[in-house]
Specification:
Number of strands: 7
Number of domains: 1
Number of helices: 1
Strand content: over 45%
CATH topology: 60s Ribosomal Protein L30, Chain: A
């Protein structure tokens, strides 16, 4: 298992708190923030509400993305996480969300959905971004899966 550890210095850690307001495109806003703040490696935690979201899935057999599932209604983020890295020298935002909404057709009155986010439009979203300065995670197409995965060189093994 390849592991990257900066030989020059230990990456520093900073945390940014962000509120994404009504109508904000999550991917666009986080990418702009990453560019403005020089973020090349980060973990993102999100909570809040969305106006709409598109969830996508990759067909493992073909490596192709399936058509997105689009939801246009208020959805509560009950769990949200993601990564910021680089792809083609620009910030790449990779988000997964678990979402809930009231649904009278279900026995308990709520529906829960989730998955890989292709697009999301905020109502009000709070995010904590844990940035690892000095570490650049670079995505490239993986020859085995065709997915844009981190290109890690073999390095130090965990202690």
């Amino acid at each position: 298992m390849p592991i990257v550890r900066s030989p020059e210095a230990t990456p520093s850690h900073r945390v940014l708190a962000v509120v994404l307001g009504d109508g904000a495109d999550l991917h666009q806003e986080l990418a702009e923030l990453a560019t403005r703040c020089g973020i090349t490696a980060a973990v993102v935690h999100l909570l809040g509400g969305l106006r709409e979201v598109a969830l996508v899935e990759t067909d493992i057999a073909t490596g192709q993305k399936k058509p997105p599932l689009m939801f246009r209604r208020h959805l509560e983020i009950i769990g949200g996480s993601g990564m910021i890295s680089l792809y083609n020298q620009t910030p790449h935002i990779h988000l997964h969300l678990t979402l809930a909404s009231q649904d009278n057709t279900h026995p308990y009155g709520v529906s829960v959905i989730g998955g890989h986010v292709a697009y999301a439009l905020a109502h009000a979203v709070e995010a904590l971004i844990h940035c690892y300065d000095g570490l650049a995670l670079i995505r490239q197409p993986d020859p085995h899966t065709s997915l844009p995965l981190w290109r890690l060189a073999a390095g130090d093994q965990p202690s």
